[in-house]
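Re: duplicated header lines in exported structure tokens

Our pipeline writes sequence and tokens for each protein into one text file. With two proteins the header for the second block appears twice in some exports. Here is an export where it did not happen, for reference. First protein block:
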Amino acid sequence: MIAEHLNRRLLLAGTTLVLAGVAGPAVSQERARYDGLKKTIAVDLFRATEAVGGSVTADGMTAMLIQALVEDGRFLVVEGDGGPMAASALVRGAVTKYEPAAGGGGLSVSGGPLGGLLGGRAGTRSQTAVIEIALRLVDTSTGQVISTSSAEGRASSRTSEAGLVESWGGARLGGEIFRATPIGQAGQDAIVRAVDQIAAGMRRVAWSALVVDSGPSGVYLNAGADRRVEPGMTLSVWRPGRTLTDPGTGEVLDVEMARIGEVRVDTVRDRLSVASVTGGEPPMRGDVLKAD
């Protein structure tokens, strides 16, 4: 009986999705070719209170931003919480405005033969959805905010729907269904605008990689063809020192870095490179490499 109920919920949600006919932002598939070094970036889960859609909105917006950054081609998007071993920068987003039906009108009929356990509605209406997001780009090595920005998205729809809602609280939309709704399409519009703002902030973040291991066979880096590293590249080696924190808030203010040497990339693999020392001290695991 539980399985039957779940299948019915999926069927009803699919009906709403198919009939919605949402008109969202037209996202161009033509992107300028980028062939420079890829910087690493991570995306934190969006903050979205129940007033702005709760976990459905948070999950949907996070997934769309990750996908947009991957498709953009300028970054390597990594999993995890954005710590120094994972990414150079972390994007934190929050939904600050959420208007699923900012304007519109139409005809709607409720009740009828769909009553009983499920309530029903049918009709035709048009609506405009608006969503606004605020973004912070954070340097993961220091915890400092690199840049802040905001973006608003809008989407209009003309809906011919037969939406069914459970009378004891309603079924929550999944991530993919959220994407297809007017508010989800408005979110996609905001994401498209946000990517360029993130890219602008990332210009202030130096490209970096980490030493995985170092020995007689060479210096191994955690960056390869996936980040467009090429043989012959020269990288400076930096060793992290003291971490300076605010005594009042505990916030990381800076991390002292000392330049200790230089390496040249000899061999490039998919996600790994091997370099040789060309000057200074031999690197150690965890040392930072930067493109001068």
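Second protein block, exported in the same file:
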Amino acid sequence: MRLSTRLLAMTVVLAAACGGDSDDRTQHDDAKPAAATAAADAVPLSGRTIEVLMITNDKGNYFEPASIEAKPGDVLRFKLVQGVHNVYFLPDSNPGRTNLPPASVYAQLPGQTIDIPLTFGTGKFYFQCVPHAMLGMIGHVEVED
């Protein structure tokens, strides 16, 4: 089975599995992630929103930018350009870190956004798109005062 056929099949399965999810983690343009709400109360939001594009094209699947500098209280706004993507601050990639947001729902419609308030401390945090991490869709944010 060709790699492109396998990837297409995996994408269809993931999209079908995640398409009907309507739990509290569903993101909207102006919604806070459910798990980050309590942490957001402890760290005031700075008002700065940093847009990160989630892209699928002939170059592959990737975040743009993949390397970000931010301050506590900034908000990362992941915006879908094309494809089906999510954002996950995987605990294994961020050892010793607590209060990381849970894996987001999958953005499936161009223009859909996922907001992640940076309320979980300072340092370097790694994130990924779960189905595309093995294809290099990873990034990091350096949060400094």
